[in-house]
Write a structure and sequence with these properties.
This protein has 14 helices and 9 strands. Strand 8 and strand 9 form a beta hairpin. Helix 2 packs parallel to helix 8.
């Protein structure tokens, strides 16, 4: 035989108590196994159960269904009718024998029992009569086929009632016993829950009978509390509506304030931009003003007349704009340079007279560079050339020197007039060289019939007096009466 669970061969022999079952013992064992089947459970009648206790019952029933394994339901099999192999088969009116039931298979032990018995006797004789003593003590064991049939029927009954195929090996039987122990524990727990449920039901029934009035009072109290809660809910709802309205108003005010704030910040940004532009413009104007002030101060301090008419001296010569004015024996200056110096000198005197707003009475200065002249405005209105020449012709040089001397004398007369004008307006003005007719200081300005040293010194005095008048003109000091 093999184990019906692990399919391993069963080692050892069958117990003697199962192998030597009599007919009556077999019937008793089969009947006891079939009688122990669980009866069919009928659903309980809940009509007498109080409605308040039904949730507790449903909870307990759910816990029971959760705790009970699903295998217990699968093991509920229909009752099996056990038939002894020794009893007559129950003939069904419609039952017909099949091909498998038309003959009986006999094993070798049944066909040749005599040989087995004689062999047993021989063994008994050889063993000293031990076999005879065993036969005398009890009835002979049943045949092998009959025992196998009994065991097969018992295993079928056990398999049908336990939900596990039999026979089983020792290890599988231990597992089955463990599983059955768990089922037993779960059944005990379920019983304890049902007992607790029954006690709870009984307790609630007692409390329901005793506390019915208290329950009614509690219900009335709860109804009053409910009414009060409804009133509170209505007041809270109205208050909530008011708060919602106030919230909408505040939201509108907030939106208006946000818009106003955005406009303010926009105008503030524009103001900052405009202020920055004005600040930059102001800085630019201040920078330009400071630059212009510095330029003005520089221009105020700048003497244009000193730049235009630079009067100095060099090796005994008076110079104007670096042009030597005169002639010395050791330094023969060319006449073009002397004529150019006279052009600058007559222009300087003319500029000083215009600066002071003075008009000459007898002569008019005509500055024309190296070919300047002096015109007489009264009398014969003669014109005198204020430039010389190095012509070698004696007659021509004599006539030209005469006109040149007359022009220089006329120039000294104009210088005298403006000097007297300045001294008449400002008594503090002191001019070192006084002009009298053709002399300035103690030297005559005429070139003809004179020496180069005297003429050069007279020209140096002229430039010195003009420089004093130029200082007065550059300060823009008008003479006061």
């Amino acid at each position: 035989m093999n184990c019906q669970k692990c399919r391993q061969p069963l080692l050892g022999r069958v117990e003697d108590s199962l192998a030597a079952l009599s007919h009556s013992a077999y019937d008793i064992v089969g009947a006891s196994i079939t009688d122990r089947r669980a009866p069919t459970h009928q659903p309980p009648d809940l009509s007498r159960l109080a409605p308040s206790l039904r949730p507790l019952y449903n909870t307990t029933l759910a816990q029971r269904a959760y705790a009970t394994p699903s295998t217990s339901a699968a093991r509920s099999l229909p009752p099996v009718r056990v038939q002894s192999p020794y009893s007559a088969p129950a003939h069904h009116p419609h039952h017909q024998l099949g091909p498998a039931e038309s003959f009986v298979v006999l094993t070798e032990s049944v066909v040749r029992p005599a040989r087995t018995a004689s062999a047993a006797e021989d063994n008994g004789v050889q063993n000293g009569g031990g076999g005879a003593s065993a036969g005398e003590g009890g009835s002979p064991p049943p045949p092998l086929t009959e025992r196998l049939a009994q065991l097969d029927n018992l295993y079928s009954i056990l398999s049908a009632n336990s939900g596990v195929d039999h026979p089983l090996c020792t290890e599988c039987m231990d597992g089955l016993l463990g599983m059955m122990s768990k089922e037993l524990d779960e059944s005990k727990k379920e019983k304890e829950r049902l007992v607790a449920y029954e006690r709870e039901v009984a307790k609630r029934r007692e409390e329901g009978v005793v506390g019915k009035d208290a329950l009614a009072k509690e219900i009335a109290k709860l109804k009053r509390a409910e009414a009060q809660a409804v009133e509170d809910l209505k007041s809270l709802s109205s208050e909530r509506q008011q708060l919602d309205a106030e919230k909408e108003t505040l939201d509108a005010e907030e939106a208006a304030l946000d818009a106003e704030e955005a406009a303010f910040w926009r105008s503030h940004s524009e103001y900052l931009i405009e202020a920055g532009a004005l600040r930059d413009q102001n800085n630019s104007l201040q920078t330009r003003y400071a630059h212009d002030v510095r330029e003005l101060d520089k221009l105020v301090k700048t003497n244009v007349y000193n730049d235009a008419f630079c009067i100095g001296h060099e090796l005994g010569f008076g110079t104007i704009n670096k042009l030597r004015f005169g002639r010395l024996p050791g330094y023969p200056v060319e006449w073009p340079e002397i004529n150019a110096a006279w052009g600058h000198t007559i222009l300087l005197l003319h500029t000083i007279a215009r600066k002071f707003g003075f008009t000459f009475e007898t002569y008019r200065l005509v500055p024309m560079g190296s070919f300047s002249r002096v015109e007489k405005i009264s009398g014969d209105k003669a014109t005198y050339d204020l430039y010389g020449s190095g012509d070698f012709n004696a007659v021509t040089r004599l006539l030209q020197n005469r006109r040149f001397d007359n022009a220089m004398v006329a120039f000294l007369d104009c210088l005298r007039q403006i000097m007297e004008f300045v001294r008449s307006k400002d008594k503090s003005v002191k001019i070192p060289h006084v002009v009298h007719k053709d002399k300035i200081g103690d030297v005559s300005i005429k070139y003809q019939f004179g020496t180069d040293e005297a003429w050069t010194r007279a020209l140096r005095h002229v430039l010195f007096d003009l420089k004093i008048l130029l200082v007065m003109a550059s300060k823009d000091v008008r003479p006061q009466a």
